[in-house]
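Hey,

The postdoc asked me to send both predictions to you directly instead of through the lab channel. I've kept everything plain text so nothing gets mangled by the mail client. Protein one:
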Amino acid sequence: MSSNDQYPTTTSRSKAILSILEEREAQDKQWGGPTHDDEHFPADWFHFINRQLGKLALPVKDVTSFRRGLVKIGALAVAAIERCDRALEHSPDFPSGKIQNQIESYEAERRAATGESD
């Protein structure tokens, strides 16, 4: 087996990546782009992605809907990575230090608002 046989065809991969990039553009238009994204912490991104994962029900009855859900998850992952990259440009030890304190404070407020315990 050649090393190229181990990977999807360029066309297949390109289509998947383009779908994710198109979804990112749609998300930016809907939510406001980096300004909005930068208001969120890692726990938020985990929640957003987990919520989309929950929408993918098994057994899969419709491959088109399943693919659409995966594209949304991929786009959310890209948004989270972009947010991390911007944070790292400003604070190389993200999410430690001040940002970590903000995350812990945010999580405590969220738990208090939802009645969750530690």
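Protein two:
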Amino acid sequence: MAKRWTKKEDQYIIDNYQSKTISVIAYKLNRTRNAVTVRAYHLKVRKSKRRDIQATSKNDYRRQLSKLRIQERIERRVCSKCSNKAVSKMYCQKCLDKMKKYNKQYYKRRRNSQQSGE
């Protein structure tokens, strides 16, 4: 039979869920990670930074959320296109090479169309 949650345990989760990992909380409370996660969900406690966004409109919220996602990817150094390890701020070497190749072809076609149009 499952152990019941005490008010003291609930308060511990509310106080520490943002700052500590789920594993640490589970160890301290002598519970499983899944049990702590489910209990935090029932207590409406979240880890996400996205809840902290203060937006006046839906578009403003989307813009701020997009910036936050980009910042998180830069911090983790993950490519925005393929999720490989990033070399530059946003992209891995493979994706950078593809973009360079595409840009060369694009500008070459554009130059040719401008010359033929004159």
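Summary for protein two, as requested: The mean pLDDT is 79.

Thanks,
C.
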